[in-house]
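Hi W.,

Here's what went into the run:
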Amino acid sequence: MKIAIVDESAVRASIIEEGLAELDNPEIHILTERQGLLARIEEIGPDIVLIDLGNPSRDILEEYFAVSRALARPIAMFVDESDDDAIAASIDAGVSAYVVDGLASNRIKSLLDLAVRRFNAFARLQSDLAEAKGKLAERDTVDRAKRILMDSKGLSEPEAYAELRRKAMSSNRRIVSIAEALVTAHDLMGD
Amino acid sequence: MPTRELTIGFLPLVDACLPILAQEHGFAEEEGLHLTFLKDVSWATVLDRLLYGHSDAAHMLAPLAIATTLGRGRPAQPLVAPFVLGLNGNGITLAKTLADKVCDAPGFGDPARVGAALKAQVAAARSAGRRLRFGVVHRYSSHNYKLRYWLAACGIRPDEDVEIVTVAPPFVADAMASGEIDGACVGEPWNSVCVERDVGRMVLATAQIWRRGVEKVLAMRAPVLEQKRPEVEALIRAMRKAGRHFVDPANLALNARILADNRYIGSDESLVARAISDRLVLSHGGEAVHFPDFMFQYSEVANFPWVSQASWLYSQMVRWDHVEFDADDARKAAAVFRPDVYRSAVRSTGDDLPAANSKVEGSVSQLTQVGSQQGSITLSKNSFFDGRTFDPEDITGYLAALD
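Here's what came out:
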């Protein structure tokens, strides 16, 4: 089975490659370069293409699979609808799979499972979480600032929010930066 | 505190502005809504995240929402679009040497004249054994359909005389610089990036091809609309308020700064400002050209999902996928656009609402009052550059006349 792994992160690609080595007789090709991607795929003629969801070449690759007649066997997005759970798991993990027509679905399933496990392992090494935390923190900041205004000025919650927003608009800043300033000032001044 | 939450997927493009600004300026909060954003770099991923529930709704190419519903390229999944995020906003940029041969206007060119000159260049290239190649962002995009409409109307056959390939927007300037493509139809700020890098010249705006052409929509899975109907209607109201704020020139600088932020578009603030003020710099070092129709996010009920717009997109899908017209597909495609949801969302706000859900596209050639639920709404010209009109009741007649 010929597998092409398209990933601009060489580290992740090799982590996946290592995971797929368990498979029966895999022939794995790693493609990290955007330039010449389609020509390489054509040359390899893979049975399966794995590509990470964050890869900007996905639309180009899908277009190629949809219209190109260069590949001997057509490649489709996933196999059929019965694999929906496996697909959902792969999307959750951040990988998508394109498979040649006619490849047995049990082989695809075991390959996807391995790929998903490897993707998840890689994700844990990453700081995606930090970003998500940052977003939550932003919301908390606005909530804290509202609470401060409600307590100190006797405002209702919508009024407190309107106050933050009015200040943001009049000073050409984001609401969250006004809220940050308020919370910081409040922390400095003590309760 | 807002208790209702929606997660919105988007691609970093200027026309993702309305949901972003609805959140940033507190219009969502006013509606009791908190929005979280999921940014991706390919439409395939924006769509996957929508279909597998990572996002509730997404900034989506209108034709892709229809193609997904019809099961083109993957198993069919019904999507709905209750809100149009904007009209037009894309440009056609050509590599500098080609641009200089086909467009001598200092501003945007005239579509018919540029097309005629391009036809000669296409013929010259073909006799030299090559086909000019144009990039579009996706096969199922209005960019693709407007580019093809224009080329075909100028006597250039899209799949025979030239090649049209998919190029991701952030790579358009690179592809043009390396000679991989001779031109592209792409959204902002990517035309401006080509101009800044001095690899191309913007020669046309898609608004010149179809003056009020539908662009991105807010799309969601049909079951999600049913489950989250109150949230979706709240979002529609918040986005209308964001639109009113967005088109006020006083808010331009602030909006450009917010949208340019790395969490959203991640681009140069001044380039974002060009698009959202409709003042584009067309060639490197040139003066800005003001073209008020460039992108259209609010006025003339721009966000109303006219069923006839969906039908036009379906007609182009039949035309360029080279498939037979299918009455059942036509009906499914038209049903993707949901004016009933839009109506229900804004009815209580006193916002403009047209009386009809469908119109003959391209038929308004001057300022026209159309019936609305209260008084009337004035629509300005919405014509196609070649003067054709599209009657959604007669798609086959329209397609026959185009061939």
